[in-house]
Amino acid sequence: MQDVEKTEIQSQTSSKRRRRRNRFRPLYGLLVAILVIGVGVSLSMTVFFNIEQIVVAGDADQPYQKNDVVKASGVHTGDNMMRLNRETVKENILSRLIFVDSVSIQKDFPDRLVITIEPSKAAFNVTDSSGTLQVSAAGKILVSGPDSDPSLPTITGFEASVREPGKTLTSRDSQKDKIFQSLSERIAKGLDCPVTSIDLADKYNINLIFDGRVSFQLGNWSDMDYKITLAETVLGQLSPDKVGYLSMVGDHQCSYRDKEAVEQQTTAPLQTTATDEYGNPVTETDEYGNLVTTETQTETTTTAAGWQ
After folding, report:
1. What is the pLDDT of residues 263-272, one digit of tens each?
2. Same domain for 59 and 189?
3. What residue ranges are annotated as transmembrane (predicted)?
């Protein structure tokens, strides 16, 4: 009888132990998983995925040698890929290499890093009383000096607040930064008739010169892409030797005036006739009683300002 009671007690105790073990089994599994992950992360940050090869890619016509790019990046063979911050590498290259416009960083696991650079190319002259800045389409200042590049469109009235090569072009008027960006993006898409100069002195009445011969007053910078496309449509209907003026008429029309017609002087005779206090013509006579002929005066008016 005692043996039976002992067996029942042992059975109950074993059952409780099994239930207790089963209750803590998920916790044990979680702890093991955390331990394994921790070891894996630690190894990947130290032993595994270390850089053995750095590749510099991009256009064939690069302004810098591979070693220059790698040195500017601050990355070395043996550095860990997992710990590498892409944005830091990009900023290092962009700030240290003036003639680089954009950078992309690709981690090619397990041990290869690819740096792709897009070289900067001068796209505009930005001219003021202090000199000329040659800037890329992205607005990076490449050259600061007294001379312009005659092959590039020239921007006046921008009010540049930064002149140091390598920095981003910035205006004292923040709206002009947005205008520059919009114009640059539109011109980068390609134009049938090239823009040769841009006047931003009055941001509410922006003026473009197409091909050095047609002045386009497009008003403010709203819907700039549409306005330039509309102007191109009109220019496409003109002979390539036309010289004149384009202006917006309302929001959806563009008017062209020929330079010669606009600047043509018109002469109109003005008859001057003496009248009495009631507005009746007065017949004048000389001292001998002869009629005096009324003089004709001439006034010359110009319909538009001269071409600049």
Report:
1. 774 444 445 4
2. no
3. 27-49
